[in-house]
Write a structure and sequence with these properties.
mainly beta, Neuraminidase, 4-stranded antiparallel sheet, 1 helix, 50% strand, globular, SMP-30, hydrolase, SGL, SMP-30/gluconolactonase/LRE family protein, 6-blade_b-propeller_TolB-like
Length: 281
C-alpha cells in the first residue's frame, strides 16, 4: 500500500512501546535506556532514565507512570517528585528480559518477557506472562506463550501478540484480574507466510494494528485473522500506536533490525506517522 509517511522522531537506538497519553506520544528506547515523550511536532522530553533498558509503559489510575526495566526484570514506578522506585520484582518468574506491558483501567499490569536469552542466540522456549497488581504483588497470569510481546485490553479481554507463535492470543479477564483459557484471536498458517506480532494497538472498530518485523510492515487485522490493511515503510516495524488529537494518526516504531550488537551504538531508529480512517480507543 502506498502511503504518505512523515518522520516524528529520529536518531534513536531502538524505539518501542509507543503510547498516546495526555496529548503526547510516549516512547521507550531499549538501548539508550530512556523513556521520552513528544508533542508532535516537537522536541522529545526525557521522562525517565532506565539504565537496565526501558520497554513497556503504562499508568496507574492515579497517574503515576509504570515502566519495564528489562535486564533486571523489574517494573519501576515514577513518583510525583519524579523519582523512580521499584514497583515489582519479576526476576523470580520471568525467564528472559522483560519486555512489553499493558496496564488495565484497574492498574493491573500484564508483563511479557523474552523467555530466553535472545541476544545470546539461545534456543527459543515458552515464557510466562506476569500480572502485577497495583500494590506490586506478582502472579503468573498464564504460561507457555511463545515470546509474549505487545498487548492490548479490549473491554474485558486481554490480547497478547506471540512473536514466535504466528498468532494473537486472547484471554477473558475475570474481575480479580485472573485470566481465562487461551484462545486464538488471530492465527496464521506459517506455510502461507509468517506473521511475527510485536507491538500492537486496537482501534474503535475492534481491529488490531500489528507491527510485523518479519514482514517489514504493519498490518490491520480483524478478529479471526483477516488482514484488511498493510503499511510497508521499507524497514523493520517493531511497535505501533494510534494517537493525535483525533486518534487517527498511526505511529510506527521502525529500525533496520533489533539486535543489541547492531543497535546499541547506532542512531537509525525512527517513529514514522500516517493518517488512518479508523481512530484508536
Amino acid at each position: 500500500m502506498s502511503v504518505d509517511l512523515s518522520v516524528v522522531v529520529e536518531k534513536y537506538a531502538f524505539l518501542e512501546g509507543p503510547r498516546w497519553h495526555d496529548g503526547r506520544l510516549w516512547l521507550s528506547d531499549f538501548f539508550m535506556g530512556v523513556v521520552v515523550s513528544v508533542d508532535p511536532p516537537g522536541e522529545p522530553r526525557v521522562e525517565a532514565e532506565v539504565p537496565n533498558g526501558a520497554s513497556g509503559t503504562g499508568w496507574l489510575p492515579d497517574g503515576r507512570l509504570l515502566v519495564v526495566s528489562m535486564r533486571d526484570r523489574r517494573v519501576l514506578r515514577r513518583e510525583p517528585d519524579g523519582t523512580l522506585v521499584e514497583h515489582a520484582d519479576l526476576s523470580h518468574i520471568a525467564t528472559g528480559w522483560c519486555n512489553d506491558m499493558v496496564v488495565d483501567p484497574q492498574g493491573r499490569a500484564y508483563v511479557g518477557n523474552f523467555g530466553y536469552d535472545l541476544m545470546a542466540g539461545e534456543q527459543a522456549r515458552p515464557a510466562p506472562l506476569v500480572r502485577v497488581d497495583p500494590d506490586g504483588t506478582t502472579t503468573v497470569a498464564t504460561q507457555g506463550l511463545r515470546f509474549p510481546n505487545g498487548s492490548v485490553v479490549i473491554g474485558d479481554v486481554l490480547v497478547v501478540g506471540e512473536t514466535n507463535g504466528n498468532r494473537l492470543s486472547a484471554f477473558d479477564i475475570a474481575p480479580d484480574g485472573t485470566l481465562g483459557p487461551r484462545r486464538d484471536w488471530a492465527a496464521w498458517d506459517p506455510a502461507h507466510g509468517r506473521v511475527a506480532p510485536d507491538g500492537i494497538c486496537a482501534d474503535a472498530e475492534g481491529a488490531i494494528w500489528v507491527a510485523d518485523p518479519a514482514g517489514n510492515r504493519a498490518i490491520r487485522v480483524r478478529e479471526g485473522g483477516e488482514i484488511v490493511q498493510v503499511v510497508e515503510p521499507g524497514t523493520g516495524v517493531y511497535a505501533c500506536a494510534l494517537g493525535g488529537a483525533d486518534r487517527r494518526t498511526l505511529f510506527l516504531c521502525t529500525a533496520p533490525g533489533f539486535h543489541e550488537r547492531d543497535r546499541r551504538h547506532s542512531r537509525e531508529a525512527e517513529v514514522l506517522a500516517l493518517r488512518v480512517a479508523v481512530p484508536g480507543v
